[in-house]
Amino acid sequence: MNTEKTHQTNKPAILLEIAGVLLPFWVGLIISDLIGSKHISLGGNLIILGGPITYLGLTVSLVILWVVSRRRGVGWSYFGLTSPKSWFLTILKSLGVALAVLLTVKLIINPIMNALPNAGVQDLSRFEYLRGDLPNLIIMLVNIWITAAFLEEFLFRGYLMNRLLDLFGSQSRLAWVIALVGQAVIFGLVHAYQSPIGMFKVGMIGLVFGLSYLVVGRNLWPLILAHGLIDSLDMVGHYFGG
Q1: How far is Cα 15 from Cα 1, in angstroms, rounded to an integer?
Q2: In b/e form, how buried is each residue of 143-180, taking b as 16+ CB within 10 angstroms?
Q3: pTM
Q4: Which domain holds residue 16?
């Protein structure tokens, strides 16, 4: 029996693998939120946002992902991490992705959120400590480029979206839709700490990132750069009290 072929097409095995990869990270986020463990102290007023249980869960998820990927014999190209032929064009594409996300937020997501009755507001209180605090802003910028920009795109677009395509069959148009919507829904759910309206906003943003992933030929680098740029602008906004 071809082991690699079995792991690529066996639906129960794929579902079990997806759960095994994502659940440790998800559970870590939930436990951290329940016990109020939201940062790691570096001494003085310096902190890394995100509790130790969150980072433990993320580490376990990445280890499982590495193990199952090695077992399937897939390389970096499977996730879309091949070296770009032109970094200049990659940067231009990333600016296009960032613009698409920002326009979607302004023209579609925010109007929908404002029109929803009793929608509430997105809970961004955990970022208030950044106001006027340059050292913590620098720590946050380094953190988001590693965890949000690279690892979130790697997990949700590079891994999850491709694995959902494996699950439903990449030759089917319906499979592409399911993979696109599925990763966006799960992406929103893992941001539950931002309140239901925050989950909706993040899920919609995940949908745009997923579409962008397909448009740029399933290359992850434009998404990573765009994600890092958008989150960096958000954090700088918090620094200035926005």
Answers
A1: 20
A2: bbbebbbbbbbbbbbbbbbbbbbbbbeeeeeebbebbb
A3: 0.90
A4: 3-239
